[in-house]
Amino acid sequence: MHFSPEFWSIFSFLPLFVPSLRDPEYPSSTPNPPGGNGTEHDALWLAASPPKYPSPWMDGSGEWATAYKRAQAFVSQLTLLEKVNLTTGVGWQGEDCVGNTGEIPRLGFPALCLQDSPLGVRNADYVSAFPAGGSVAASFDREIWYQRGFEMGSEHRKKGVDVQLGPVVGPLGRSPEGGRNWEGFSPDPVLSGIAVAQSVRGIQDAGVIACTKHFIMNEQEHFRQVAEWNGYGYVFDEAISSNVDDVTMHELYLCKPFADAVRAGTGSIMCSYNQINNSYGCANSYTLNHLLKGELGFQGFVMSDWQAQHSGVSSSLAGLDMTMPGDTLFNTGYTFWGTNLTIAVVNGSVPMWRLDDMATRIMAAYYLVGRDEASVPVNFNSWTTDTFGYQHAFAKLDYGVVNEHVDVREEHGRTIRDHAARSTVLLKNTGNTLPLTGKEKFTAVFGEDADNNPWGPNGCSDRGCDNGTLAMGWGSGTSNFPYLVTPLTAIQNEVLFNGGIIQSETQNWAYSQIMSLAGQASTSIVFVNADSGEGYIGVDGNIGDRNNLTLWRNGEALIQNVTAYCNNTIVVIHSVGPVLLTPYYDNDNVTAILWAGLPGEQSGNSIADVLYGRVNPSAKLPFTFGRTREDYGTDILYDLNNGENAAQDDFVEGIFIDYRHFDRAGLDPIYEFGYGLSYSTFAYSGLQVEKHAVGPYMPTNGTTKAAPVLGNYSRDLADYQFPSNLSAVPFYIYPYLNSTDAADASDDPSYGSDDFIPEGARDGSPQPRVAAGGGPGGNPRLYDVFFTVRATIQNTGSVVGEEVGQLYVSLGGPNDPKVVLRNFNKLSIAPGASATFSADITRRDLSNWDPVQQNWVITSYPKTVFVGSSSRKLPLSQRLSI
Ligand code: NOJ
């Protein structure tokens, strides 16, 4: 076994941590355009992350008390080797799942199976393809998020998965071009926070551990991993650094949404590929030890993204609890942990209490969600859909049945159809073009996006192409479609049922056929799309991130060709996020526009339900449709800007992304965040604010208990040798040693020095508690309810409909956004009837992060509450007296 040079490296922490762009000495506006060439640097350039040690040990707070006790009892029985085995993956393609820990045969404890994705079970057959997170965000519907989570969780459980690698709130969606934004929910942290919390609850109630990812500032694909991007011809030696100030970290990226995932009990969190202020996400003691485990009181385990670990001892001391997939790089057979973690504990580099904490956190998550009762053996294989294959795929060992083809879909297709329809946003509907009756004289359907992928729905590995209708993006955040109902099929069924005429042209470059058909149609429905995905795949020159915000596959020309000949053209957009509607949205011949996101397997049926009025649209935009790409104010860093060193991605826009930016810059979007029409109309009136008696904010104080140590261990390396009766699987990662000489066993000639260990990192004595912390999700007093806000919403139209009442707050300070979303509720209202909208405002909703006090404060600036139907349609408002 071998230590890579990085194993011994500890990140050099410069004394600087940028406290805040609000700080007078830092500019509050952008000094350099993002993606600048690095010649003129801003305050964040080369920002550094301060050391924070020791790594907090779990204390069983919140709902974790029982799980903690059971985990401690379990871990107390384990040997050192068994504990190490729990923390370390067996290597890429070592077992059936995309990630697998070692097992504990002595106690009959199976290897843990970790499997993507945030929208279904990846790399498996007989599973469902759910709508993407970025789509269901538009439902603004807590029940949909919970139910989707529960159904995904139950499919994972029945396939034998212990940890579902989802949901996603990193990326949050800083730049609309971000390749994986659609895996997450929304660039608004409150919408994302509520959606992630409901998803976590759903997944975990189904008996599977949720892994909320990627922590944190993982906002683009470009330069996320060195080897991957070296492969694309970019020469650099460390992953990109997302540089951020303390206020932005707290107010936009951490609390919410990650705080909400932690408060909802997420059992696991995946640390990210990127660096944060020039320290890697999986060895960043500030973000992992201080922010996540200290301030947010996270009780579960931190797992690395795949190959995102770059050091051994130092990542353990910085708060990493599980390494995935276990080898340093795929299939090297080398590991930072495994053997090396065994040595590091024996020689004292990593204290025993830290290994105990790692193992306890993993087991506590296991008990928290009831894995001890819910577990079934893994019955699928990530590396083949065949029935027979190798148990150890990379080593090609142990041939036998690896896939039992267990159908775990139940009736999920129905909810998928319903959820996707209720997540479809109606953007334009001139003269009540929609809903259609099905009795239109001549319906024409246009666009590749209406039709099948000629290679079949799963014809491109990990959905890495844009052929046919788009129902999910590409990358690890995917699942295999059991079927994909195309829009053309569903519309055809509808029209034929009604005895009408339907014809289609689904080749986007067949200009003359398109124009000829459009000239005959009384109703044209045009399907267009825009795709993106994860950085290991490039599609049409887009390496993960989109290169622009235009439509794919000649979409604009298609719309133009149809609208030139048909004055009743309905445009349906399947996309990973915003696209530029500028060329056509206000064309009079475009009579309706729908944003249908990435709807999953029932795509066609869902859109038909909306088009033909079985579902009255109620979804609202989870992002802004701007007029130009530049209007967004943020973009991907597409070019290296720091020579061959880590690219510096300075988040100089602070908390001003999406609608917050448009509002501040005074830019008119085409369709703003929160916007969405219905087949009915609604009126808002009668705002009432009820104030609650709330005690003062109490910073958490005192100290923790000392770190528990669970059992004894031998310091003799002879006790950790490969068992003589074990026939080792090649390239498999084990906790054992192959020599009693540590330098030999670790294959590291410089073995022996521990002067890299940061001060205090091994100190297991009682530690001061974090003032802004105190429980999972942060200081419990942050969740005190200050106000309950009520308003009347009347359905002024003629059909029953659902309306999402939205509550925004102005925090009133010169550096605060004009308004920020704080709550929402969806109400179903009969025509002519009224319903009462009601939503709470908590202390956290009214607070700003104070980088000097290192706590949340309610400033003396005037606070105002707004209620309405979008971020820009807020007819009701009232000053809050605090
Ligand atoms: C890398 C991705 O970033 C992560 O989201 C995924 O869970 C792992 N690969 C495993 O596939």
Task: Give an overview of the whole structure.
This protein has 882 residues and is of the alpha/beta class. Among the domains are: 42-371 and 378-404 and 711-746, TIM Barrel (Alpha-Beta Barrel); 684-699 and 772-880, Sandwich (Immunoglobulin-like). The protein is built from 21 helices and 29 strands. It has a six-stranded mixed beta sheet with strand order 1-2-3-4-6-9. A six-stranded mixed beta sheet has the order 12-19-18-15-13-14, with helices on both faces. Helix 15 links the parallel strand 13 (443-446) and strand 14 (502-505). Helix 3 crosses helix 12 and helix 14 (412-421) packs across helix 18. It is globular and about 85 Å long. Mean pLDDT is 95; it is low at 1-38. The site of 1-deoxynojirimycin has 7 residues, from loops.
Looking at this protein, list some descriptive labels.
TIM Barrel, glycosidase, 882 residues, 29 strands, beta-glucosidase activity, alpha/beta, six-stranded mixed beta sheet, Fn3-like, Immunoglobulin-like, binds 1-deoxynojirimycin, hydrolase, disordered N terminus
Helical stretch tally: 21
Strand order of the largest sheet: 1-2-3-4-6-9
Query: What structural category characterises the helix and strand content?
Result: alpha/beta
What is the percentage of strand-forming residues?
15-25%
Average predicted local confidence, pLDDT: 95
For the record, the CATH class of the domain at 42-371 and 378-404 and 711-746 is: Alpha Beta
Helix-residue proportion: 10-25%
Task: Please give the largest β-sheet.
Answer: 6 strands, mixed
Rg to the nearest angstrom?
27 Å
Seen as an oligomer or otherwise, the chain set is single chain
How many angstroms separate the termini? 61 Å
Q: Using DSSP, what is the number of strands?
A: 29
